[in-house]
Design brief:
The chain has about 240 residues and is mainly β. It has strands at about 10, 15-20, 30, 40-45, 50-55, 60-65, 70-75, 80-85, 95, 100-105, 115, 125-130, 135-140, 145-150, 155-160, 170-175, 180-185, 190-195, 200-205, 215-220, 225-230, 235. A hairpin with a 6-residue loop joins strand 2 (about 15-20) and strand 3 (about 30).
């Protein structure tokens, strides 16, 4: 994750720290979380505050890069296991609860939580993205669904992912209000495109297999990038403009 000054922020697979690398000098700064956990899924809010989730510790974290202060917040649901995060146009931080059938949000100004229940008790959303209309989209990993949540009304709409109940949709991003994600349960893994206007899916096999795409991102020029976790590689999808 890159900040406004070009510093690179990261977390490791183990440990309870967040790191910052200054590419210009090579200097590394590390920030230890106040309690043990597994910080990941870093995002910056509009004020430059770094937010992250701690799934196993059941915490939402907030780090002020100016002071190094870290605050840990606890979601209302016990065992929520907050996982993926995204920011809407108003600066609200949204996250999915991999330990419950819920999507949550936290107001960066008041630190108040709100939770949105999903209709199926078996839902376990894992990653999240938000389109320009502030609609929340999530990948329901165990059920094989793509979900849509309107936070203004609480209405949820879901679609079965193209590869079916065992498709395990995971990393997800929105590009020009088109939803892109990967099915990590198919062999090989896929790249899936969903157009909210037509509710139509397209999917393609990842040439190298994919090997569980846990996270995705969007490049500066609007292309889709996937992290192929088990082979320590990436896949780049060039999208026609």
């Amino acid at each position: 994750m890159e900040d406004r000054d070009g510093n690179i922020w990261y977390t490791g697979n183990t440990g309870s720290l967040i790191g910052k690398l200054d590419p210009k000098t090579g200097a590394v700064t590390e920030y230890q979380t106040p309690e043990p956990g597994d910080p990941h899924t870093l995002i910056f809010d509009n004020s430059g505050i770094l937010w992250f989730t701690m799934q196993n510790a059941n915490r939402i974290g907030r780090l002020d890069p100016k002071t190094g202060e870290i605050k840990l917040l606890t979601p209302p649901t016990a065992g929520a296991r907050p996982y993926g995060m995204a920011l809407n146009s108003k600066g609200t931080v949204f996250f999915v609860e991999f330990g419950a059938n819920k999507v949550g949000s936290v107001d960066p100004k008041t630190m108040e939580f709100r939770e949105y229940p999903l209709p199926d008790a078996a839902s376990r959303p894992r990653r999240i993205t938000i389109t320009s209309d502030d609609i929340v989209w999530y990948s329901d990993y165990p059920r094989g669904y793509l979900g849509r949540l309107d936070p203004a009304t609480g209405k949820v709409t879901e679609w079965q992912s193209p590869s079916g109940p065992k498709s395990e949709p995971y990393g997800i991003s929105a590009i020009n209000d088109i939803i892109w994600y990967s099915e990590s349960g198919s062999t090989p893994n896929t790249v899936v495109r969903f157009d909210p206007k037509t509710a139509k899916f397209q999917s393609w096999a990842i040439p190298g297999g994919g090997n569980i795409v846990r996270n995705t991102s969007v490049t500066r020029d609007g292309n889709f990038m996937l992290a192929n976790s088990l082979v320590n590689g990436i896949t780049l999808v060039a999208i026609k403009k």
